[in-house]
Amino acid sequence: MNSNQLAFTIPISREMINIADKLSQQQRNEQKTRKVYLNTLALLAVEFFCQCMEIETEFSKSYGLDSVVLSLMNTASIFIKDKGLLECRPVLPKEEFSDIPPEILSERIGYMVVEIDEIDRQARILGFVESVTNEKLPLTKLSSLQDFLVYLQKLQKVENDAKSTAKIPVNPINESIVKLSKWFEGLLDSGWQSELAIARDIPNVLAVTKDISPVNVTDKEEVGGARIIHLMYLSEPVLLILRQTRLSPDEIEIILRLYPASESIFLLDGIKMTLLDEKDNPIRQLEKQAKGSNWLQLRFKGNVGDEFSLKISFREDSVITKFII
How many CA atoms lie within 13 A of 136 on its CB side? Predict the structure, then answer.
């Protein structure tokens, strides 16, 4: 970041501290409590900045103040109206990098970095970047807040152009391929965690995931993983669980389940899971859509080396994840 670049500084009010305290005290360990506290202050600082710049936000679609999401993810994202999620990352004075958790490396319109000075009770918005490629963001790479305002105007123009030509924006395909064979070696891909680690704070999920079992006998080698999925215009995230069982040295059975990752026990009607072949063509017999559903499931078998994709969609919005067995 250019040393001549002006930061936006606001005082950290007692109200902001109270909100951060309330959310952080709902966490189960000291490390998580500290992260949620700083994340919340960063988000509230960015919200204040948006108000000053007359940028409209929608907390109903934001993840940064949702206690359930905060228990699952290291995130502080705020939804900019008609644009998408803006991630707010806190740093402490004298830090040179901002940590970017793997679960938020995508599906964000940008990343705003906020320095939290607890001694002077100040929050300084240092700058932003449009995208990140790894989990360490050097503060020297930040663009100015003026650049952010210009960038936001460009996003508005792109959206208006899309509407005028009847084109509907869809989340980009995640081009990184999840290598499922590595899971049997204990190597989960970036963004995936163990089922227990990510689902233990969602009681309704834990109650039903116990019945996910392979079709064949259960003495086969089995491994699973889970991750949170965000659709840009869906107010609640969903939880994807993938369980795979080795039926033979070459044959693998795959079970995919989708759950609400919130306090709701039902998926929003209309959410759909569709399996795509190696050419991204939908396999209609492997497609499920929520209608009063607690969860959705796809179950199939494949061979080592097979490629497939999973499309999770809601109306015109979708996220596609590529896999190789």
Answer: 4
Q: Are the C-beta atoms of residues 252 and 304 closer than 8 Å to each other?
A: yes
For the chain, give the longest Cα–Cα distance.
66
- CA 174 to chain CA centroid, Å, is 12
Q: What is the dihedral of CA 29, 34, 35, 39, to 10 degrees?
A: 140
In angstroms, the CA 147 to CA 156 distance is: 14
Beta strands in 212-295 (DSSP E): 221-229, 238-246, 251-260, 272-276, 282-289
Model confidence pLDDT, tens digit, residues 115-154: 999 999 999 999 999 988 888 899 999 999 989 999 988 8
Burial letters for 250-289: b for 16+ Cβ neighbours within 10 Å, e otherwise? eebbbbbbbbbbbeeeebbeebbbbbbeeeeeeeeebebe
Whether the pTM exceeds 0.70: the reply is no
